[in-house]
Amino acid sequence: TVRLGMAGYAVATETAPGQSIYFEHGQHATSICGAIGSAAASARLLGLGAEGCAHAMAVSASMASGIIEANRTGGTVKRLHCGWAAQAGVTAAMLVREGITGAPTALEGRFGLFQALLRDEWRREPVVADLGKRWEMEDVFVKPYPANHFTHAGIDAALELRSRGVKPEEINSARLLVATATVRTIGEPLAVKQSPETGYQAQFSGPFAVAAALHGGGGLGLALEDFSDERANDPQMRSLMSRITVEGSPLCDSIYPHQFPAILEVTTADGTTHRSEVLANRGGPKNPLSATEMRAKFQTNAVGLVGEEGAQRVVDLVEDLAQAPSDSGAVAAMFAACTAAVLGQTS
Fold first, then answer.
1. Regions in the chain scoring below 70 on pLDDT
2. pLDDT at 19
3. DSSP designation for 143
4. 335: alpha, beta or left, given left = phi > 0 and alpha = psi -120 to 50?
5. Under CATH, domain 149-278 is a member of which superfamily?
6. What is this structure's pTM?
7. Angle, to 10 degrees, between the axis of helix 2-14 and the axis of helix 29-45?
8. In CATH, which of 3.40.50.9100, 1.20.1250.20, 1.10.4100.10, 2.60.40.10 is domain 2-139?
9. Is 246 helix (H, G, I), strand (E, B) or coil?
10. Per residue in 68-116, pLDDT tens?
């Protein structure tokens, strides 16, 4: 089961070596490429062999979808994207098992997925270069905060200024400098980003992310409860957000898309300017989360669903996975633990 997950993860990341190109066209690479990866893992799980796996990936290419307009103007549909990718991949593999076939060049063909979505910007070489030798999944980032990834470096910069004694009530103005390509997601329209109406909209707001971090939050710095409707409409938060702008930075442009950097400049009432640069994202290969931080992130997110005991049970099972008689048995045990915890909370 672990190998299946790794295979699916690898296929998904290998088909998205130029994720920024998808985003430039308003497409959600996670949802699109995730469907291909899910199909590969599901086909292997069903024992379809190499040919069946290829057909499943090809069939899933007709199901792969996802746009990111909700990042800019609202709507909660993006929360379905990862689940949809998983469902599309599983469905594709099951259809292949029953005899459905896919085009052999469904990915790279003239009317294949890459050409249909990326047009002339797609390049074959990055996909096949070092295939089987170097794995894109080694460079995958783990998000420490439940918000759009483009806000994370700004959050870390704000947390750093908070640790240096900068107080929200003393701030006259603040500039969040990021890669120009990310401004449209977390900084435009500025009036909307400075006054998100819901917690979900706040997850795509640079001003909210900075303001929330300056006020201090839970989890690894900010947790899911910090992105509530109430917090988004809190008068103190609204006041601070109105003083925060989001702008492009040549330095950040030179680093993006390999990192999503940010520079935060804050001017306080006494005229002092405080500056913090975060050029390598927390949770990335250059600044990975520790095992303790990964555990804390999972437990913070899981407790609300399965309770502390259920979350700890899953942690224990994962940490003992290498010693488990069979990984499928361990996964079944994790599923049983979560199910029992949920039923216990709702009974």
1. 1-2, 17-19, 322, 324-335, 337-347
2. 60
3. P
4. alpha
5. 2-methylcitrate dehydratase PrpD (3.30.1330.120)
6. 0.85
7. 140
8. 1.10.4100.10
9. strand
10. 988 877 788 998 999 999 999 999 999 999 999 999 999 999 999 999 9
